[in-house]
Amino acid sequence: MGDKEFYSKPFVVLCWLIAAVGGLMFGYDIGISGGVTAMDDFLLKFFPTVYAKKKLAKENNYCKFNDQRVQLFTSSLYLAALIATFFASKVCSKFGRKRTMLVASCFMLAGVILNAAASNLVMLIIGRILLGCGVGFGNESVPLFLSEIAPVKYRGAVNILFQLYVTIGILCANIVNYFAAELHPWGWRLALGLAGVPALMLLLGTFVIPETPTSLIEQGYLDKGRVVLEKIRRTKNVDDEYNQIVNASQFAIQIKSPFKKLAQPSSRPPLVIGILMQVFQQFTGINAIMFYAPVLFQTVGFRNDASLLSAVIIGLVNVFSTLVSIKTVDKFGRRALLLQACCQMFITQTIIGVILTIKLKATGSLGRGEAILVVLLVCLYVMSFAWSWGPLGWLIPSETFPLETRTTGFAFAVSSNMLFTFIIAQAFLSMLCHLQAGIFFFFAAWILVMGLFVIFFLPETKNVPIDDVIERVWKQHWFWKKYMDCDDDDIGQHYANSSKQDHV
Predict the structure, then answer these.
(1) Do 384 and 345 contact (CB within 8 A), yes or no?
(2) pLDDT (0 to 100) of residue 300
(3) Residue 79: is it exposed, middle or buried by C-beta count within 10 angstroms (0-12/13-18/19+)?
(4) How far apart are CA 375 and CA 308, in angstroms?
(5) Which is deepest, 33, 172, 175, 427, by most CB within 10 Å?
(6) For position 415, what pLDDT does the model report?
(7) What does 275-292 look like in DSSP terms, one character per residue?
């Protein structure tokens, strides 16, 4: 095989970009629901009582959108994704990351068709459930694909492409909502239907990208796995990385029940970290902001069109701040970005809470200057999240599980994300109604807890080969190392005998 037969560098980068489209699907679904539920035509058709409450001039600022059915429209997707994730982990292990992404795109397309054509609430909810299945399969496979196909020194940046696409999806959804709100009475159908664009992009893209070498080797295709590894690294000098993957794969084959393996003490460090990263990501309050940004800005006194425009501005901040993470995560490491963001998010959430407590009562609105200040503070908050807990919430769990529990362990992480996304989505409007401005203090308290968690319990994984995490991460950490010798003493020895050299 001559060098001219190797994949070109642009093609390898294209593979990363195509796979990350799964994040575009997820992001669009996060962003579109809040804008659609703020559209009068949508509310009038599916939630007429909410529409009537919204139009009451004296309605409580914090409670006018508090309706469990509206929240179910948003949150049903995440409950479906939670359940689908565990099926996705099986498909991911048995059939590969690439085919799992194909299944994700098919679910998404089916859900989009039902949503855009919905004539009643049942069709709407079933469509959201199908979208949730697509999100479950996509969020399980895409971060794993990116982490496994990326060179170790760029793994953070490549994996964060998923979150970058999430932010682009949210931005696109906000822009679509802004213009679709003026298209009466079918603008909401256009907004929901355009979710089919990224789904179709991923569907077609799966016929272009290769399967990851790790997945091929795990399935027994050793020669094909090496060929693909040589192509994506654009060199034949892949012995160290190939042997490391083969060793991990051979050990993984001996594990008959990944779920049972995850229950053992030696699996506890990555499992606990993976789940807590997802829980903390949601309790920053970010999805509450993203889901309901238009609703939130109406609450603080913006008109409907102005609130949607403010959400577009936040979407732009989100995208460009994620680019900062791509540039810095492999330079400064994961912990530094997380800790800096905790400080910035804590300060902004607290100040927003103080302003709303003092200035926004149950009726009336903020002054223009105060409302603009709230938007600026929300932008600063989103900025810090976008270069830290947003992308790293997906990156860290995808790079810390050993191969024998990687898809199953990551499924627990993804399902935890979906569970707490569901909880926040279902509860946020009710929390806003009952806690009012105190909801920002609620999230600020969680951010303080997250910072302490990073300081004491989160190891640094920068520049650590993905199949060498046991020796170089868990067995070196002051707290987690005690779990590594509690069972299966051959694990440490197995990985110790694997190549210690970094991936090319």
Answers:
(1) yes
(2) 62
(3) buried
(4) 12
(5) 33
(6) 92
(7) HHHHHHHHHTTHHHHHHT
